[in-house]
Amino acid sequence: MDFLRKLAGKRRGIDDLVFDSVNIILMLLLVVVMLYPMLNTLAISLNEATDTVRGGIGIIPRMFTTYNYQHVFDNAQILHAALISVLRTVIGTATGVFAAACVAYAISREYFVLRRFTTLAFVLTMYMNPGLIPTYLLHRNLGLIGSFWIYIIPSLIGVFNVIVIRSFMENVPKSLFESAQMDGAGEFTQFFKIALPLSIPVIATVSLFIAVGQWNQWFDVFIYNSSIPELSTLQYELMKVLSSSAFQSSGDAQAAIQAGSAGVIETVTPQSVRAAMTIVVSVPIICVYPFLQKYFVKGLTIGGVKG
């Protein structure tokens, strides 16, 4: 019996070792697959443009230079577009989270008479879209086209965000609200003193959703404000760079190679500019995400489970 127990323990140890080894290998492969495109783009952005045309760039620049970034930031339109992107991300996130939290708090209260009807009306908007033309006409009649607020007001309340926050608030102990009511606290006091502070995890999660959406958005700029350079965003400028580089002929690459062989080093190509701008628009989100990551899973898990 002792021999069988030792054999079973040894077999379990071998099985665990095999499982751990396979798991580590698969995770390493996944990391490589996910990181390589970004590292390759970073290497291209830091590599001399005419040398990049020759190909063969991996994850380490072959001829290091920062001229690609200098070229990007020398463009005054890029700097102004970056400012607009930051403004729409900050303002859009702050107003979007606050508006979604207000609506979520209202429909999470059991004594709200129109609670079910309001929830149903919001959910229906997720399945029925009026289309681009009616939406455009509505925004035009509201006077939003050609203004900065076209980036903020139409996306002020996201139904998915409201549902996530509402599910979280429904799990807040009702005794806290009942105690506050007995002390004479009104709805605003309960919202600002109880509901919001206890909903920090889900608020951080929704903030990340909205911030990423606002930062990456370019289609609304293309539809409503493409003729107004003062309201262009960084992502829209990146889209224009990607579109223009897609129509570059192979003659441009040959000219870049000839320029490099003639000793003209400080030049750019569509590929190098595209890589530099991709890194520029990605860095802010990469820097912000680690600070909100600890709230991310917790906010979705607790907010998605109804107690």
Walk me through what this model shows.
The chain has 307 residues and is mainly alpha-helical. The chain has a single domain (68-307), classed as MetI-like fold (Orthogonal Bundle), CATH 1.10.3720. The chain has helices at residues 2-45, 49-53, 67-73, 76-108, 115-127, 132-141, 159-170, 174-182, 187-198, 200-216, 219-224, 234-246, 250-261, 270-304. Helix 7 runs antiparallel to helix 10 (200-216) and helix 7 (159-170) packs parallel to helix 14 (270-304). The radius of gyration is 26 Å and the shape is globular. The model is unreliable at 259-264 and 303-307 (pLDDT under 50).
Q: Quick one: biggest sheet?
A: none
Gyration radius, rounded: 26 Å
Helix % is over 70%
What do we call the CATH topology? Answer: MetI-like fold
Instruction: Output the helix-strand order.
Output: HHHHHHHHHHHHHH
What structural category arises from helix and sheet content?
A: mainly alpha
What would you call the shape? globular
Rounded to the nearest angstrom, the distance between the terminal CA atoms is 48 Å
Domain ABC transmembrane type-1: 78-292
Keywords: Cell membrane, Membrane, Transmembrane, Transmembrane helix, Transport
Pfam families: BPD_transp_1
Family: Belongs to the binding-protein-dependent transport system permease family.
